Model the fold of this input.
Amino acid sequence: MKEPFGINRRKFLAKAGAGATVTMIWPFFPSCDTKTSTTAKPELSKDFQPDIDVELKAVQRDLSVLPGPKTKVWVYEAKLIKGNKEALQPLEGSYLGPIIKVRKGQKVRIRFQNDLPEESIVHWHGMHVPERYDGHPQDVINSGETYIYEYKVMNRAGTYWFHPHPHGRTGPQVYNGLAGLLLVTDDEEQLLNLPQGAFDLPVVIQDRTFDEYNQLVYLNNGQMDRMAGFLGNRILINGSPEQTLSLKAGCKYRLRLLNGSNSRIYKLAWGDGNPVIVFGIDGSLLSTPKELPYLMLGPAKRADVWLDLTNKPEGTELTMKNASFPLEVMSGGMMGDGGMMEGAESDLPQGSEYPVFTVLASGSGSNAYTLPRQLANPDYIDPSTAVNLNAPRQFTFAMGHMEWTINGRTWETTEVADEEIVKLGSTEVWKLINGGGMMSDDDGGGMMDGHGMMGDENGMMNNQGMMGNRMQMPHPIHIHQVQFNILERDVANVDPQLWDAIKDGFVDEGWHDTVLLMPGMSAKVIMQFKNFKGLFVYHCHNLEHEDMGMMRNFKIV
Done:
């Protein structure tokens, strides 16, 4: 694949240096190429009669985010051409959005126009769509071009989202503001008495860093931010630094949480010690609500959380905090004592405690919404139907030769390996492995153990399950085109102290498209490849890892 904008990416990374700071001055990588892209772009189909028709533009804007000078951001702006006016909901005053609301069975047309100074494409995260409408990196379009999406909504009710997916530029494009929610409902959900309208709230959580002129700063520790993943120094909620949700005492709410951060992991807990009540995850409602002491939410994960203010007086404040967990953070780009790759310096280190948002009961009211004990039909995949239940495909996400790899390989635009080819109509189990350090290779630069993990110089794990002098990091793994069930997590090689601090925060029930693998962890997931043949991607959703090549194709034939 050609390097975007004629820049040799490897040379750029090499020159970036561990101490370099990049302020997002626009355009970040100006493009001198005025040629149209060579991708065969879908056109308006005469036979496709959409229920919802939306014009979606990616544009540059100057918006007031902080007091003082306006911030240069990239935003999605939308106009409803056809459909119920409730299908499109802007987030007023925010660089995020819009929120697109659809129903299972509806036909949707999106006319995406790229008005950015560089290539882009939109990925409909979690949606089950044909290859040409998934937002594959090979389908990027240049500035001034339009890409037409036309698909029938086949997904269950759930909280989905959309964001850019150009290889090498997903991280900065999302960081600069390009993200929106796509909410799907269906008949099953409509039979429930869940909160709607003003009581069904988006809560997009992101971390950002601004300079003294209110401009976004990205990769302020250069190469180490790329390796570890970028961490901002303040939390924004729905694109606002206020971090306050002004709600009504006496009412019940549905909070649709999205971790829209590039690499930050959240351990969300109510400050008053009450449980976090989760009733939806990624691509589905749960069968029954779950009460958790805290919720682990990796990048790209979504969760529907129940909030009951019925017995709270007006003026009540509830804080959702990030509770601490021992995922060490960077100190000058050095490895931690346990061999853990430490994150870049930040005022909000990964795993530290800080407030995420506050609920303020600034008024009062009432509603009759309820959270039933039985939500969605538990129609999970029967493991016995998998063609490889006892011999799952294995995919190890690891560092090799200072590159983020999957089974020792990095990104290739259209290439697939033998183990990345699956059959239409099949049901399979995949074992996703956080392999930490270097993959085994021809020069003997490292030996894999039976779990795909690196040991010490003799190829052995130390007694903490950590790797001596090896790089380990969390990897949130996203698989396009499918929703999967999580069969099991193997935590035998997870640091016991870390696991003890996070083990009660995972929701493995329901339908997922992203699974968070902490260092040393592996997970078996089961999925069905149905309806559509084609080329799709799977990758780490730490966006810096993805941009550095921790992404591969799989092909349905």
